[in-house]
Amino acid sequence: MIPVTLRDLLRTVLFLLVITGIWWNVPSRAANSSQNPWGGNYFPNVPLVTQDGKQVRFFDDLIKGKVVAINFIFTGCSAACGMETARLRQVQDLIGPERMGKDVFFYSISIDPDNDTPEALKAYAAKFNVGPGWTFLTGKQKDIDLLRNRLGLYMPPVDKEKAKLGEIDHDLAVIIGNQATGRWQKASPMENAEVLATQLGSWLSNWKVKPAQQNPSYANAPVRLPELSKGEEMFRTRCVGCHTVGQPNESARAIGPDLTHVTRTRQRGWLVRWLKEPDAMLSEKDPIATALYEKYNKIAMPNLKLTDGEIESVLSFLEKGSAAFQAANSAKK
């Protein structure tokens, strides 16, 4: 006979409780703000300076009792910071001015405080037409490194010149959280903007979801999930924060041009090189690249380190998207 230990007996009891649905409710630590572990004892209340030169404290002034999105950038970045900022600008637009700065707050903190003065951050925010409720911050390097550590976004620094060439020395992630409830999570800044907006909004007590979305029926689910081409997948995750396809009448808040028929209006060789090394073309003062840079608030096209195959996939998607847009317009006539 095999002896039964107390540990074995407890495991058996717990297993039976789980499979029979018999359980008890354990009060959430986050439900009681006094027991919330993610409070002032965890988050450092370090001093920071806003893009307007205002002195603030991280915990007391920025996150205490608020729903927030926090990321780390530096204005000299020619790689992913611009894409990240553009995607969050989309999220800001979806949340809307009636909630931004009242129910939801965005914070972008520089990891290069030696160069990112309040004036530099203000100019950077203006390039992306950032609205109220989104604050750009700088401070002392040791304080910023401490925040990155506590938020789980610290990476050892690399030489700033290498970073400008695309070597990333910071975690490309957004931390979203509700400090009042102690609910925090890391999200990709390349995530769909509607998904990010919904994640933030779902933590608000007065967030309203359309009834059709509250209890979706499996009967209405698609038989098969849509299959994305490699080019469309890359466009949705890398390009859609700045560009559109099929919206040629650009708004005043456009970060980059609509790309409908771009494969017709630009030589393919130029497009291939532009997707491969836009930083080099801007440095060489290529006339088309320079004109685009000047037209769109001097926001540099990031070098995404795309392979030749990835570039061809993106161009193929743009061709198909442009053709679909033209066909839809013709059908309306």
Q: What would CATH call the class of the largest domain?
A: Alpha Beta
Number of strands: 7
- Biggest beta-sheet profile: 7 strands, mixed
User: What characteristic shape results from the CA principal axes?
Assistant: globular
Count of alpha/pi helices = 14
CA-based gyration radius: 24 Å
Taking strands numbered 1, 2, ... along the chain, how are they ordered across the largest sheet? Answer: 2-1-5-4-3-6-7
Task: Give the % helix.
Answer: 40-55%
InterPro entries: Cyt_c-like_dom, Cyt_c-like_dom_sf, SCO1/SenC, Thioredoxin-like_sf, Thioredoxin_domain
Domain Thioredoxin: 37-173
Keywords: Copper, Disulfide bond, Heme, Iron, Metal-binding
Protein name: SCO family protein
Could you walk me through the main structural features you see in this protein, from its secondary elements to its overall organization?
The protein is an alpha/beta fold and 333 residues long. The protein has 2 domains: 36-205, Glutaredoxin, CATH 3.40.30; 230-332, Cytochrome Bc1 Complex, Chain D, domain 2, CATH 1.10.760.10. The protein is 41% helix and 11% strand. It has 14 helices and 7 strands. The chain has helices spanning 6-20, 58-63, 81-95, 118-127, 141-150, 160-164, 193-201, 211-214, 230-239, 262-265, 268-276, 278-283, 287-295, 308-332, and strands spanning 47-50, 55-57, 67-73, 104-110, 134-138, 174-178, 183-187. The chain has a 7-stranded mixed beta sheet, sandwiched between helices. Strand 4, helix 4 (118-127) and strand 5 form a beta-alpha-beta unit. Helix 11 packs across helix 14. The longest helix has 25 residues, at 308-332. The radius of gyration is 24 Å and the shape is globular. Residues 1-34 and 209-218 have low confidence and may be disordered.
